[in-house]
Design a protein that fits this description.
139 residues, alpha+beta, two-stranded antiparallel ribbon, elongated
Length: 139
Amino acid sequence: MGHAASKSAKSASAAVPRAPKPPERPEQLLANLTKLGQVAVDSPMVLQKTHAQMTHIVRTRAQSENTTLTNKLDAYALSHLYDMAKDAKNPDTLAQQFKLDPQTTRRLLQRYNSPSIGRTNQITLKDGEIRVYKEAIWV
């Protein structure tokens, strides 16, 4: 009975992974470090520069949002402007809403427009899937 208990204790200790042994001599440690070579470590100044750059970007964006006339729109805002222009009676109100110069807004609306949805066709496929096709018309 005592023999079985000692066997299970040996197998349990064999299953536990052991930490690698530290080098016995300092020369061996030095040789391993030399073999590894130099390691790049970021200095705290790099993080501070990045933080300063991000602060500058945030401040610049906040200033550009507070200016009255930017004459700059992203693609989504431009599409939204064209959609709203279909129902708007006065382009100057759109210019104020989108922070654009009224003359620039009038030129945009005279030369360009966006599609509207015309007819809608619905097709049912053999497997029961329904596909909807919408016709784009230019107003």
